[in-house]
Amino acid sequence: MTPDQITRLSGYKAPGPDSICNIVFKECTNTLLPYLLHLFNAVFSHQVYFQPWRCFSTVVLRKPGKPNYSVPKAFCPIALLNTTGKLL
Known about the structure:
Distance between the termini: 9 Å
Helix content: 25-40%
Order of helices and strands: HHHEEH
Number of helices: 4
Largest sheet: 2 strands, antiparallel
Radius of gyration: 17 Å
Number of strands: 2
Strand content: 15-25%
Low-confidence stretches: none
Mean pLDDT: 90
């Protein structure tokens, strides 16, 4: 993992179930990078994926300007993933 990968995250997107915003990782990259490196290496070497990282929340948003909100096409589902899982 490189600092470049973290800085490419969009800073102010909505967080997932872990409530950790991308901006936290971006602002604390130098501090977190050594810990994340060991953590992610352990995930690969032990072949175990932390179960809460698999969790996500789905938020359904109304599409603006639709004349009828009683049809499914008038809505847009958004999946909010855990940030740490996205980095992995």
